[in-house]
Amino acid sequence: MGKLGGGSLFIVGILVVILGAFIQSGIVETLLNIAGFLIIAIGVIAAIVGLVQMLSGDKQGSSDF
After folding, report:
1. Which DSSP string do the residues of 1-65 spell out, in sequence order?
2. How far apart are CA 52 and CA 44, in angstroms?
3. To pair with 11 at 20 to 30 A between CA atoms, which of 22, 29, 43, 55?
4. Cα–Cα distance between 50 and 46 in angstroms, integer?
């Protein structure tokens, strides 16, 4: 810690304050909500596509029989 000096420690302190303010704001919660919605939507689309492929009867894939 001795090599950081006063100026570097001051900058680290300012960055930690800014990071804390950013986490306390609603921006992070909003971004997480959007990301969660996108993951759910992608999962639903993948499940529907997989179900359609399973039920379509295409025998193009590899099979043991």
Report:
1. -TTTHHHHHHHHHHHHHHHHHHHHSHHHHHHHHHHHHHHHHHHHHHHHHHHHHHHH----S----
2. 12
3. 29
4. 6
Joined together, the tokens standing for residue 27 give 């921006």
Taking the C-alpha atoms of residue 5 and residue 1, their distance in angstroms, rounded to an integer, is 8
- pTM, whole model, 2 decimals? 0.58
Cβ 12 vs Cβ 4: under 8 Å: yes
Cα dihedral across residues 3, 8, 13, 17: positive or negative: negative
